[in-house]
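RECORD TYPE: inverse folding
INPUT: structure tokens
STRUCTURE:
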């Protein structure tokens, strides 16, 4: 039975939600992906309470080009700008965002991939937070600044733009006149509760049943 690349799947689903303009659009895209994957032999299990779920594309702020331009023009620090963008597109509390290591940002900055021990949290399974196209340059700039400063890949990417008790984040949001979305722990987000399994094709099932029946009628000799 084939193995499903969970991170690749979550990045695919996250990309559908990253630029979604509303909860309704996100749900329609995810249901469509669920149907399409089923046609290709993958059973995608979305959270049963998705209509009331939280996370990217459901409770986060859609980051339009106008908002991205405002962040770029109003926030001179790449780290502060990326931290505000992360707050809007992830909807996670400041301490969660502050613990994101440099290595969690994908090469093309389309997602943050968390696995293993991150800060005080341990992820038994990888989880992904998508980044909209409009603000990916902000994350790339924050990573470049961190690398120029000699920041280790396991050290924090955004902590400098968050501040004690999230003070820098609130100031940045106020300066850019953007609304902070409802904040939820990573474990509550819909994308952390997605499961996918390969479906057994009907021919394979018939084969297994046939072998079982044959074994029952003619048990193997010992």
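DESIGNED SEQUENCE:
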């Amino acid at each position: 039975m084939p193995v499903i690349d969970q991170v690749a799947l979550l990045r695919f689903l996250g990309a559908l939600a990253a630029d979604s303009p509303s909860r309704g659009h996100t749900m329609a895209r995810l249901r469509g992906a669920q149907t399409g994957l089923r046609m290709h032999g993958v059973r995608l299990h979305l959270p049963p309470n998705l209509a009331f779920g939280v996370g990217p594309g459901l409770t986060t702020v859609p980051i339009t080009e106008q908002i991205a331009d405002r962040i770029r023009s109003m926030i001179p620090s790449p780290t502060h700008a990326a931290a505000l963008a992360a707050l809007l597109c992830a909807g996670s509390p400041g301490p969660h965002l502050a613990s994101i290591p440099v290595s969690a940002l994908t090469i093309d900055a389309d997602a943050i991939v968390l696995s293993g021990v991150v800060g005080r949290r341990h992820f038994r399974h990888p989880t992904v937070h998508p980044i909209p196209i409009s603000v990916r340059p902000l994350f790339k700039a924050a990573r470049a600044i961190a690398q120029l400063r000699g920041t280790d890949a396991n050290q924090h990417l955004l902590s400098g733009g968050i501040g004690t008790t999230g003070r820098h984040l609130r100031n940045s949001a106020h300066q850019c006149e953007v609304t902070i979305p409802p904040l939820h722990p990573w474990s509550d987000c819909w994308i952390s509760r997605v499961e996918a399994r390969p479906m057994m094709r009907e021919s394979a099932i018939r084969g297994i049943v046939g072998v079982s029946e044959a074994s029952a009628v003619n048990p193997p000799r010992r």
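NOTES: Residues 93 and 183 are 6 Å apart (CA to CA).
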